[in-house]
Amino acid sequence: MSSELRILLAVAAVLAVLTLAGAVTLAVRLVRARRDLRRAGLPVENRWVFWAALGYLVLPVDLLPDPVFLDDIGVLLLALRTLRRKQGATGG
């Protein structure tokens, strides 16, 4: 195996790990946002957004193949924004 190919594979592996770490971080933030809404006694009306985003992250069916977690990150950001907007609208 040539040294250029090894470098390319190493860079691809590092990028895959970084995007996975970003997706996991966003998933944790999403779970915390939902928990904060429930602790505040607010009904989580957009429960489907939470479960759909986590399901999209976990399920193998994606728009982009999984070492590329950019689509997963986008879905998680959208769900997090939706829950945060709900939290902000209620004064949380």
Overview of the structural elements:
- This protein is 75% helix and 0% strand.
- With 92 residues, it is mostly helical.
- It has one domain.
- Helix 1 packs parallel to helix 3 and helix 2 (47-58) runs antiparallel to helix 3 (70-89).
Topology:
Elements: H1 3-39, H2 47-58, H3 70-89
Top keywords for this entry?
single chain, 92 residues, mainly alpha, 75% helix
Question: How much helical structure, as a percent, in the residues?
Answer: over 70%
| Largest β sheet strand count, sense and barrel closure | none
- By DSSP, the count of extended strands is 0
Q: How many separate structural domains?
A: 1
Shape: elongated
How many helices? The count is 3
Give a short summary of the structure.
With 92 residues, the chain is mostly helical.
